[in-house]
Amino acid sequence: MMTALIDATHHLLPLAARSSSPPPINPFDMMPWGFFMVIMLANLVFMVGAGVVGYYIAKKYEMEPWLGAAAGFFLTWIGILIVFLVGNSQQQARERKAKEKQYADWWYANYGPQAQNPYGAQGNNPYSWNGNPAPPSPPQPPNQP
Known about the structure:
Layout: H1 2-8, H2 27-30, H3 33-60, H4 65-111
Helix pairs in contact: 3-4
């Protein structure tokens, strides 16, 4: 039955009308293995290079260097970008905390005994008047040994 259908439709399906079909194409037969090895070696060199760059970026931003190397190796340029952005945000947070601590230390050194009202008496504060409270004072510095 099937052969009769194929014989009847040989003008519509020329490949199906053939009695013997060609063997399937194997893509690995068409590509030389040397070329494949060169591509894989170049990829490995690129991944190792990205791991080294990730290692040094993580070290620069005071992160764990092995995390930068792993992200660079496995994720290549996306891993390098992640390490850079995370490290940069952590560095900015450290700088911001250092500035806050410096300001708190300065304020405590100049106005320490007057913790509730940094301007002294109520009348000396330009932001308050009788019956209105003064603005909040800056944070206290941490207890130092």
